[in-house]
Specification:
Length: 125
C-alpha cells in the first residue's frame, strides 16, 4: 500500500488502496491522508454530477486552440463489481475495457472520438 510512495518519494502519490476493504481496514491512515490531501473529512459525502452541465472551458485564442491536436479521457477509478487496479486480473481488465469502450461509443458531438488500446496500437498513432 505504501511501497510506491516509499520507492518514489517525488511522485506525489504515496498510498494505494488495493481493495475496497483497504479504506476501512486501514481507515486511520486513509482518513488522515484523504483529509489532508483532498480536504474531505471522514463523514463528508461525495455527490456525483455525471452531466456536462456546469462545466466551464476557458476560451482559447485561435493561436492557442491551433496547438490542440487531441485530448483524452482518463478512467482512473474502478467499476462496481471489480477490484481496484492493483487487484484486478487481466481478464477483468479486458472486461472493464470492453465496458468503457461501449460507454465511450455513445459519446456525441465534441465528446466523440476514437479509442486506442495500448496493446496493439500502431506506432504511427
Amino acid at each position: 500500500m505504501i511501497f510506491s510512495g516509499v520507492k518514489n518519494q517525488d511522485s506525489g502519490i504515496g498510498l494505494y488502496a488495493g481493495s475496497h476493504d483497504s479504506y476501512t481496514k486501514f481507515d486511520k491512515l486513509f482518513d488522515k491522508v484523504i483529509q489532508e490531501y483532498h480536504g474531505h473529512g471522514k463523514d463528508d459525502k461525495h455527490v456525483s454530477d455525471m452531466t456536462s452541465e456546469g462545466l466551464e472551458n476557458a476560451e482559447f485564442a485561435a493561436e492557442d486552440a491551433a496547438m490542440v491536436n487531441s485530448t483524452r479521457i482518463r478512467v482512473g477509478r474502478n467499476l462496481a463489481g471489480y477490484p481496484l487496479g492493483p487487484g484486478v486480473s487481466k481478464e477483468q481488465r479486458n472486461e472493464i475495457m470492453a465496458k468503457v469502450v461501449e460507454a465511450c461509443e455513445k459519446f456525441e458531438g465534441d465528446l466523440k472520438g476514437t479509442f486506442y488500446p495500448l496493446k496493439g496500437m500502431d506506432k504511427k498513432v
